Amino acid sequence: MSELASDTEAEPGETVARSSHDTVEAAVRAQLTKAFGGLRGVLEAAVPTVGFTGTYLITKELKLSLGIGVAAAVILLVIRLVQKSTPQFVVNSLFGIGIAAFFALRSGKAQDVFLPGILYNAGYAAAMVLSIVVRWPVVGFLIGSVTGDPTAWHKDPAIVRLCSRLTWLLLIPCLLRVAVQWPLYLAGEVGWLGASKLALGWPLQVAGLAVMVWVLARGTTPMAEPAAEN
User: What are phi and psi of 135, to 5 degrees?
Assistant: First the structure.
């Protein structure tokens, strides 16, 4: 039996974590779908940016534009709470616009709204490259979250190679965002920064996810090796 799935019986009161997926690819697909939050999740992440950018381009008022962006996120949060659905992605969006507002109000420059996102993507890409170099690709921990063992996947070279390829697919969009948005930030192009954040946000995520799903659909790495015959 593979380390990714244990055949040890649970003691009374103990729960053994098992995956409901037969293959690594199916497990990663399920976790990626959950991580992106579906169409509603990505739209909720985009609304505050649209509100801020559109208002600033019309009024050139930084505080008013930030207020519109924050208000949009709060309204989305209230809707989630009223519907008693998970507010995770709206809270993430509200947290993001809050950090952006701090940066912009501190400097007085509208383009600084986008600086935290640029720094985040640069740091995230660097961390993922490092994880691939040291052969602990971050996508592997998605498998660990499914199986209940965060590191057992690392003992299987085939799974490590698969997770390395998938991690590259995750980090390429981050690199593209930095490459496009950093020059725009230096030039103070607020309108183009807003447009690029939207264009390189959920559309790029969907495209990246589609490629990852294609890669995953071509493989059938078992979550557990078949038991040896006597």
Answer: 65, 35
> Is the CB of residue 128 less than 8 Å from the CB of residue 165?
no
Q: What DSSP letter does each residue of 192-219 carry, written as one string?
A: HHHHHHHHTSHHHHHHHHHHHHHHHHT-
Structure tokens at 98: 């809050």
Q: Is 100 helix (H, G, I), strand (E, B) or coil?
A: helix
pLDDT in tens, 165-222: 889 988 899 999 999 999 999 999 999 998 888 888 777 876 777 787 777 776 565 5
Locus of tokens 């519109």: 68
Concatenated DSSP letters for 42-61?
HHHHHHHHHHHHHHHHHH--
Q: Report the distance separating Cα 78 and Cα 76, nearest Å.
A: 5
